[in-house]
Amino acid sequence: MKALPPNLTSSLHLLTSLIQSLKNLQQMLGVSRLSYPIVLLLLCMVSADSFTQAIGQENPSLNDYPEPVDLYDASMKPFYHGVASGDPLSDRVIIWTRITPDKPVEQITVEWIVAADKGFDDIIKKGSYTTHPGKDYTVKIDVDGLAPNSTYYYQFTHLESRSIIGRTKTLPVGDVSRVKLAVSTCSNYEGGFFNAYAAIAKEDVDAVVHLGDYIYEYETGHYGLKELIKDGRHHRPITEIIKLPDYRQRYSLYRTDKMLQAVHQNHPFITIWDDHETANNSHNTGAENHQVESEGNWEARKQMAQTAYFEWMPIRDNKEKNIYRSFNFGNLMKLIMVDTRIIGRSPQVANMKAEDYLSEERTLLGDTQRQWLTQEMKDSTTWKIIGNQVMVSPMDVSFFRFLGVIRIPFYPGKKRNMDQWDGYPAAKDRVMDFIKREGIQNVVFLTGDDHASYAYEVAGEKENPIEAYQNGTPPLAVELVTPSISSANFDEYLPRFYLNKLRRKFPKKNPHLQWFDLTNHGYISLEITPEATTATWNFMESIREINDGQRKAKTLQVKAGSNKLE
Length: 566
Description:
This protein is α+β, with helices and mostly antiparallel strands. It has 13 helices and 25 strands. Strand 9 (179-184), helix 4 (195-201) and strand 10 form a beta-alpha-beta unit. Helix 1 (6-29) crosses helix 2 (36-45) and helix 4 runs parallel beside helix 7 (258-266). The longest helix is centred in the first third of the chain and has 24 residues, at 6-29. The protein is globular and about 70 Å long.
């Protein structure tokens, strides 16, 4: 094919950049395609420097990428992906590794050992495990017979090779005076360095709660920092992941990251998936980022994504591959992890004017999971902490419709985000009605997904909940939204003048919002005592370079019995 003239090539690259920016805006804010011409005009008015900083602004030829260096650390051979632990109970915990053979083999046997000390003098349990290509050579052991509230060390061996030593901890029983968790979400490999994971690795926590988007399914260049991608921090495979080998390779890539390895090595994880472990804005029967015509059957893709997740994550196996489950930290708290993404979620509707928006048939959890959740909330523990993917609190986003004097229908119809609980009013009402009717106390929702930090007092009335809250109706719970590890924030999408407008209008439209931040990456440190649950938002200095700088940005507390943040 004859090469295009340089000026035409440049023009096409500019057009591609603008179109990609529009797609990013549509994905994050629900921009309707009808508004593209207006947004295109506005984007052209933004300074060139703003575009230089934009996320996913270019989609260069794959030939523009340097040859990828070998990401495996030779000193870790053959356990290149480190170790991990997860799903701790009072008497057991999952330990995990992956052994990578020099060439495919039918099976490999790995020895494992668990001890009460790092020197492995006090051996508690040991054994062997045989893995094979059908498990992608992953190793997962459910180690039982452990003591509650105890720290253990573990290691894997194969022939003369040893893995790094992992540290884990079981859950307490009986009277518990304090639990500390780290809460994280949204770690895009191409979006920036995982400095927040390195910070969590150094924290004194009982467990790390990850609320989903542990990986991203996109092709290289679709959703990331241009300068990092060109320097070699790019996805493998470079195409969008659709088949089982694709998902496996993407997890393999993420688990070569030294900062992610460190946090897994030091703390047990309790995880749920969100949408990007399968495809963007997924639901039970499809996804925004899944086209049947070109990408095949959705059910097959979903099952392959689930298979890879259960292979690569330290989560306890079950035949149904369900991720909703609970963890008791003595009589102090019950951590309830739910699946609002694919097990029971009906397809999202376009807006609040959709004919079936209010339908009682539309669900977010599915009936079986919802009934399980309500039973779990009846527990006698002081606190019910619910790990959840998407925003529970009602959020008025009508102010998104104004950019200067030009009206843009980011949320056409009525003023809610249809991918959050607001998009499923009947399903949401059933849960909120239960909390109110049963008088369930001390409910704290932990939420990811939104790439921002929020602290809400949850307004739970059916009709006009925000107005009811403003008029004095007491909240039913609190919601703490953790920032992303590295996925794009509002400032990485929007020009500064619009961002400042959002900062002014957010609290005016949402009086139940007690604090928020739209631009920083990091995680939440959560401390739970019988008297109060205290959240501290920790922000990283940078994600564009490896950097351990961080600051404690905000601390808020909800006292037992109050549902009020202070």
